[in-house]
Specification:
By secondary structure, the chain is α/β, with parallel strands linked by helices. Helices cover 19% and strands 49% of the residues. The chain has two domains: 60 residues, 434 Repressor (Amino-terminal Domain), CATH 1.10.260; 215 residues, Pectate Lyase C-like (3 Solenoid). The chain has a 16-stranded mixed sheet that branches. Pfam families: HTH_3 (PF01381).
């Protein structure tokens, strides 16, 4: 458990919790959290179980430095592709259609692409993950085979992509999906393209560009950096935590930004001094930046 204290701190920050809030949720003192994170104390088994339950992870994951993707699958059919890399790379990911996509960084050495479905009995035959490693670039492409349509993929295919934290350069992902989550990526730029109904951002430190002409809901759970939205004749909603500080900017043609708190329209609460910023670009689009009730 040499890095156990780092694990607790990592998951606490990922969840957007202060030491005090975490202590309140698991029924201990703030001083206990401090001791666990600085290595001067160790939680007993009941507290380990409470911590794992709070962060929705296994105790093995909590005690391991490998924040792995190996949770038990909730799906009947699955396929897994792994690829070793040994240096920093830029990633170009093309997925086509999917029901849900989860893109995240983890402490490991391999790219891991997992496909899940409760419908595709022949998922390993119907889909092929192609990974091309060319100098400083990794291309990941998901190909549909045997006449499988994108429409069917968008109804029932779940894709998890796990990239080693220490090897992440720029990331570009193209997908048509109901939901896309992006977690724990620290890099210069993440570019998201396609038709996506809902985007969730958690624990990232990056300039994130989202280019989609669907009406979207964007959930910013925790983030450091920029969120830039480019749309054409769309109306989207961006939900932020109550303590999230940002400055906003409107560019393009005939775009509008509105602000809401707890379901009511309010004046702008952006902060021009903030390092985080939210930008709306494109043509004839609306963005509502909202703080919703917990």
């Amino acid at each position: 458990m040499t890095l156990f204290e780092d694990q607790i701190k990592h998951y606490r920050k990922q969840a957007g919790l202060s030491q005090e809030k975490m202590a309140e949720k698991i029924g201990v003192s703030r001083q206990a959290i401090t001791k666990w994170e600085n290595g001067t104390g160790t939680p007993d088994i009941s507290n380990l179980m409470a911590i794992a339950n709070l962060f929705q992870i296994s105790i093995d994951e909590l005690l391991s430095n490998e924040k792995t993707e190996s949770k038990k699958s909730d799906y009947i059919y699955e396929s897994r592709t792994e690829y070793d890399i040994d240096g920093k790379k830029d990633f170009d990911i093309k997925l086509g259609g999917a029901y849900k996509v989860d893109l995240k960084a983890y402490n490991g050495e391999k790219i891991v692409v997992e496909l899940f479905s409760n419908v595709y009995k022949n998922i390993q035959a119907d889909y092929k993950v192609k990974i091309d490693d060319i100098r400083h670039n990794i291309d990941i492409e998901l190909a549909r085979l045997n006449g499988v349509s994108e429409a069917i993929a968008k109804e029932s295919l779940v894709v998890n992509i796990n990239i080693p934290t220490q090897y992440i350069g720029r990331v570009e992902i193209s997908v048509n999906a109901g939901t896309l989550t992006v977690n724990d990526i620290e890099n210069e730029n993440i570019e998201i393209n396609g038709k996506i109904s809902e985007v969730a951002l958690k624990g990232n430190k990056s300039e994130i560009e989202i280019d989609s002409n669907l009406d979207m809901q964007i959930n910013v759970i925790s983030h450091e950096g920029a969120v830039e939205i480019n749309q054409l004749s769309a109306t989207s909603r961006l939900i932020i935590p109550e303590n999230f500080c940002f400055r906003s900017a409107k560019k393009g043609i005939a775009n509008t930004i509105y602000y809401e708190k707890y379901g009511k329209k309010v004046e702008s609460f952006s902060n021009d001094e903030s390092d985080n910023y939210i930008e709306l670009n494109g043509i004839k689009s609306e963005l509502v930046i909202a703080i919703d009730e917990a």
